[in-house]
Each structure stands twice: as C-alpha cells, then as structure tokens.
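hey so u asked for the seq, here:
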Amino acid sequence: MIDYAQLLLLGAIAGLTIFLGLPMALMPNVSRMKKGFLNALAMGILVFLIIDVLSTAWQPTKLAAVAGYTGKGPTTDAVIDLLALFGGLGLGLLGLALYEQRYLRRIISTQKRLAFAEEKNDKYGGKENRSGPQDRTQQQHGSELFSSPHYLATMIAVGIGLHNFSEGLAIGQSYASGAVALAVVLIVGFGAHNATEGFGIAGPLTGISEKPQISFLAKMGIIGGSPTFIGTLVGSVWVSQLTYIMFLSLAGGALIYVTLLIYNTARRESRNDLIMVGLFIGLLAGFLTDLIVSLGGA
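ran it, structure tokens below
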C-alpha cells in the first residue's frame, strides 16, 4: 500500500525515465545514413504510440456510442465523447500546423530582412539580388522547418508530453478509484515506455554538426516527461473520462504531425530500405515493451 506522496513521487519517476534515451543525441561521428536510420527508429516508436493512444481513446468512445445507440446509455455522453475524440485529434493536427505557419513566417521575415540588409551593403548587388529573397520564399516555406532538428525535437517532445499527461491521468484515476495495485503496475509500465520515448526525441538531434547542449536536452526531457507527474496529480483528485479521451486524441494528432516531419527528414538522409528497417525496429520495441507490461498485469 502506498500513500499519496509516494504515488506522486512514483508518477514523477515514471515520467523522468524519458531521460534514459536522450543521451543518444550526443553520439559522436554519426554518418548521414545512420542519422536517417535513427530518425526512422524514432518514427517507429512514434507510430506505435499513435496506435496505442488512438486505440485507447477509441475504445471507451465506441462503447459509449454503442450504448447510446442501443438505448443502454445516455446519447449525450456518446456525442460528447465523440466530439472530444475528433476535436482533440483535429486540434493536435491543425493546432501544430497553424503554429508551424507562424514559426515559418517569423523565420522567413527575419531572413528577408537580413538578406535585404546585405544587399543594401553590397555595392555590386544590383537588381538581380533584389529578387532573390522573394523568389526563395516558397522554397523556404517547405524547407526551413525540416532543417531545424531542435525545432523538430521540440515538437516531438510536445506530442509525447501530451501522451504522457494522459498516462498520468490513468495512474491518478486508478489510485483515486481505490485500485492502488493497478496504479503501481501502470507506473512501472509507463516508466518502461517512457525510456523508449527518449529515443524518439533524440533521433533528429543525433549526428548534427553542433551537438545539442545538455540544458536543451534537459528541457526536452521536462517537456516530454513531467506531464506524467502533472497528469498523476490531476487524475488523483479529478476523475474524468472525457478529459482522458480528449488528451489521448490530442496526443494522437500531435504525434501524427511530428511523425510526418520525421519521415520527410529521414527520406532525405537515408535509403528507403534502411528507413523501413528502422521503422520496423522502432515498432518492435514499442510492441514488445507493451507486451512485457501487459504480461506483468497492466
């Protein structure tokens, strides 16, 4: 039997195991091909998480919809759960896409100002240079984001953080309902899962010319891992299936978004066969970890 303080401590530890995978970003002498493979490995882990979170969100939503349709449950609950599921999924996808547009506009605006300043200072620039920044704007729109591993890692950490918040809710709600043993098993299982999620964040940062600073990796770990503790705290005092479904679907949309970004990066840096191998190994790691947790009683 664990008390409330121990529950919160274990919830924090379960989230912070994400730090175990982050040192991969500091690996030296990683070739472009290997970097593409590691990105694909991260992508495989994220694809598993997408399957996991959306299936977990869909199950109670489907049951509520079937109960409402057959008259065994309130129709309003079914409608609200469906709205939470699809609303969260859409918000996860479109919200990050809109943020991307704002981020890209800032980058393009800054680079245009720098380019025009350089042109003004260059006595040999003439008319040919004036059209350069404007002509390159559309190309930058599609390439600026993918050339920033730090931004990509941040987006992955945000998506994983949303996912881990929903895991924390499951831990806290299990404890609040009296299922203390289940809460402990969930803590152990989610802690094991979070260790592999660190590789997903570190993938885009591996092999870049300027190694990420320890402070940046710590920030990514906090963004991705601390929501497990926050979710445990919230779930222990407030049980809400609607909130659980919404955050699961929100995490699913965000993870789909960042997975597509990783694929674009991996496709440019590695062969397709290596990408598929990395994707397979990442999926295998996710499913085997989940299987071990399930065999343990979760």
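DSSP finds ten helices and no strands in the chain. The longest helix spans residues 75-121.
lmk if thats what u needed
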